[in-house]
Amino acid sequence: MELSQKKGLSRLPLSLKLLKKKLEKQQATVFFPYEIDITFDSLYGLDQEKEIMQDIITYLSSDNKNRIKPHFSYCIYGELGVGKASLVYATSKAANIPVIAIDSSVILSQAPKKLGSILDTIYKTAKEMKKIFGGCSVVFKNVQEFFEMENDSIFFSNLIKNVSGLEDVFSFMLSIVGPIDVPAAVVENNLFVTDIYIDVPNLATREKIFEDLIQKFEVTIADDVSISRLAKDTFGETPLGISYIIKEACLFSQRRKHNVVTANEFSETNNVVTANDFFETNNVVTADDFSETIMKLAAGEKREKMTDKEKLSTAYHEAGHVIAGYFSTPNYQLKRVEISPRASSLGLTATDIDEKKFSYFKEDFENLIVEYLGGLAAEEVIYGSHSSGVLADLAYATTAAANMVKAFGMCDVIGPMQVIPDVTNSEATKAMADAQIAEILKKMKKKSINVVSKHIPYLEALAKALVEKEVILGNEIEEIFTKVKKSLSNENDGQATWNELLM
């Protein structure tokens, strides 16, 4: 019998009502189909995943049980906010079946001996749900926390016993792992028939998400806001992250309007916070509002102003990154460079990422390291030594060099092999790998210094512009470099020098 409407729930068997109540005491949540407001239409970029789930929906909705039975046991994994749980809820709603959801951390916060009892309650509830609804979804969020304790026989054995038998009891079981990798124990014990990895949305999908959410939240955007630009600037963001960006941009817009937040604005609120409470604003949200939000996510909130000396040295540092990248990397596309101090840095250089490129060669890594070391190079060229501001740059450069040598076999001395921790590489090989990493870094530092030294006029011009404006976009840098190039070509003709042009 179908119980898709709330009024039908009163006819649930007493045994199921008691099990539901027991689950809720154990901090699990039961959602009936009518309570789920997530649909396939609200899922972005999951076309392949939705096709897989459609097989389940068709099977559960069909009277023809002679159909080939699809898999019902899935391990869904991916980063926070990509839509793992949403896929399960949308599938359950379409199939008209309930969902039992529980976070693994809730279970593990209790005594180990209670694990078996909780899983047993889930098992029995799912069995009863199948009798009434024809199926049931069980969602274990953050299930990797179980497997981090696989050496504990109580936790691990109970999980294996209960999870491995679920498919024989009811029609629909999915489990969710976060953030990225499937635990080895899942694979080794063959707990799930199929793995589904949900990746972050691509460029086209991010553009669609921005369009839909801006419309959904009734956000008024200024003419200078480019949706395609926002999509490019948010590489790696999830649908949840994009929702947050839009919210924060609206808040920036509100701050520009109000300037002062009163006590009443803090205290006066409804009991229920709706989407409109987050997004309603009479202000127009500008490109600067979005840009500031994205920079806040990347490097933190803006903080106090720098001294003039710090500002100049930071300008040279960030300009060095740009010069090293611009004159050493083909198709270099600078997005933004700024010297506004933030939580994690005094400056920031951001480039556009080619999302269509999946393979990287030795030259690509070398050019990347040259750019990473561009700030250090500029400081040493201008001041004769470098500051502590190179900390993050050195970390990035070292990681890239280590990947070249240890992971991708891009070192002639080591050869085409991987040097992996806790694997049977000899100590001599590991020492040789470390020596080659150091050699690559020395070589790329020298190259970066050479590039910067050959383009001092460009470095000076960009640093000067950064001191004056603090934030410079990619198209503005092209304009600055065009002026420098023109002045250098005219310098021997008795015309204005590059320095004079920039006064």
Detail the topology: elements first, then pairings:
Layout: H1 14-25, E1 29-31, H2 47-61, E2 73-77, H3 84-95, E3 99-103, H4 104-108, H5 115-133, E4 137-141, H6 144-147, H7 153-164, H8 166-169, E5 173-177, H9 184-188, E6 194-197, H10 203-216, H11 227-233, H12 239-258, H13 263-267, H14 275-279, H15 287-299, H16 308-326, E7 334-338, E8 348-351, H17 362-372, H18 374-383, H19 391-407, H20 427-454, H21 456-469, E9 471-473, H22 474-490, H23 498-501
Parallel strand pairs: 2-5, 2-6, 3-4
Antiparallel strand pairs: 1-3, 7-8, 7-9
Q: Can you tell me about this structure?
A:
- The chain is mostly helical.
- The protein has three domains: 6-197, P-loop containing nucleotide triphosphate hydrolases (Rossmann fold, 3-Layer(aba) Sandwich), CATH 3.40.50; 203-299, Helicase, Ruva Protein, domain 3, CATH 1.10.8; 308-493, Up-down Bundle (Methane Monooxygenase Hydroxylase, Chain G, domain 1), CATH 1.20.58.
- Helix content is 54%, strand content 8%.
- The chain is built from 23 helices and nine strands.
- The strands form three sheets. It has a three-stranded mixed β-sheet, with helices on both faces.
- α18 packs across α20 and α19 (391-407) crosses α20.
- It is globular and about 90 Å long.
